[in-house]
Structures are given as structure tokens and as C-alpha cells.
Design goal:
325 residues
Length: 325
Amino acid sequence: MKTKTLLLGISLFTLGSGLVFTACKKKEPTKVEDVVTTPDESGQSGSDSRDTQSENDAAVNDINNVVVGTKLSGRGADAAGINGISATPCGLTIDSTNILTGTILLNYNGTTCLNRTRTGSIKLSLQGFPNIKWKSTGAVIKIEYLNYKIARASDQKSILLNGIQYLTNMSGGTWINLVLGTPSLVTTVTGTNLNVTFEDNKTAVYNINRKMTYTYPGTILTCKAEGLGTNGTINNLENFGTTRNNEPFTSEVTTPIIWNTTCGGAVIQGAVNVKVAAKGFDLKFTYGVDPSGNPVTVTANNCPYGWKLEWTLAGKTNSKVIGYN
């Protein structure tokens, strides 16, 4: 039961924290392009980056949930035991034909779940298997996105991923070890030249580099996300590359992003700065604020109202506070 609760919490993180693309209805507009209203910039680049980051997190969540129930994790499970730890994620079927070579194929069948319709495949290859298992410290899974598409059912806006990333188990262990008392589980997601095609058939190129640290003291699940990338003189980048309009951009985690099940999976702290230098455009996300935009000290009875969005263009700055619910 504790393991199922943990995995539910992780799912809340990836879906509940998707402020734009996967979100349910909000009291206020949550699509960045709906909030940022300037004559020269729609906020699309910031929206695209956060949407894709959220969906990338959701895919990695699926990967963790699937792998932990197979012999790739080192549990001794066979391919038929995939559902032994968690339910198969919605709309996903698992091809384990080549599991003895360390490979699993995740196939998405177009089922709509939580306003998201997913198609395509994700190929997973555990490097060095069978000598290395996923629970091993430093284990690496090669992730290949094969026309993996996420469409928002309400308006058919979509993200199509093609390319390669690497998921590394920095700490060793799995979700099971967190339940059993391991202090933390640390993973990284790194990769270059991920092609991201949107509903208008324009393609961005992203370099996503993230570190995720999970802890579970007292059955309270907490996740901290940090940026690992460097581009020029800018560090702590969770993402950088070119926008759908072929303009260089950076997305810097200036304060680690923290989710916590105390507040139902809402983002309780963190800040991200998205810049499109060619346009002199600067977009800042600050998470875990009160209705006035001030940071909140989170307790069981005091959760944040939402997040603050600030944008600067041509020396002019505007802002808006957006509620989570």
C-alpha cells in the first residue's frame, strides 16, 4: 500500500505540476501565451519550454514506474510481472519481447487520460544489462522517443518528441527503497538535440538536463528539480536550444523547484528564468506564492495560492499571479 501511495504521489508531481499543457481548468488563465500580452512577443517560447519539460517529466515517470516492476530493476521479476508494483500507466502497453537484452518498448495507444492523448513509442535500453541492473548506482537507461506525441484533448494542441535522452540512477535504488527507508533517490535526465514539433508543424530543438531528488520522510513525498546544463556563461539550465521560430533561448533554474504531497502535488517553491536573447525577452516563473505574489512558508495548513509570472520586453516589465486551483 505504501508503494502505491508513493507512486500516486509521483504521478501527481508530473501531472499536477504541468502548469500549462496537462493542467485541469484553473480559476485564472494558465497558458503563458494567454497571460503575456505584448505586441512583439506572445510568451510562446516560455510556454513551449515549460510544457515540454512537464511532458518530459511525465514520460520519465512512466519509465520509472514500468522499469521498477521488471527484471531490469534487479528485483528478479519476469516480464509478466510488470504490474507487480504499480498499475500500467493509462494508455500504455509494454512490449517486453527483448527484455533479455535489456530493452523494453513502451507503446502509447491513443487513449485519452486526464485531457491528454498519447501516441507513438518510447524505447528503453538499460546499458550493460544483465551485469548492471537499474537499481545499481550509476545505471543508465537510453531513452529513444519514436514519434511520441502528446495532444491536449480540449484543443488538440500537441507536442511531438523525437530524439535520445539518458536517464541515470545517481544514488542507486528504486522507489521501493524509498518506501523501505532509503534517505533519497537521485536521478538525472540528460540529452542533446531533442526535436520537439508543435501543432503548427514548427520544430524546436531542446537540450534538457535535469537532476531530480526524491525523499519520503514520514510518508511525505518531496521532489526537488535542478538544472544541470551550461550554455556560454549561463549555468543551472534545465533546458536550452532554439525555439519553434529558430531563436536561441535558455531556461535557467534560479531556485530549485520543489513539489510536496503536503499540498497535493503543487509546486511549493522554485524559480525559472526563460530568456530569448535575440528579442530581449525575459520570462520569470516564481512558484509557491500567495495571492500578492509573495513566497509562502508551507505547512500542513498553509499551502501556496499559485505562481507568479513576470515578463520583460524592451525594458518594460509586467507581472501576473495565477492560482493553482
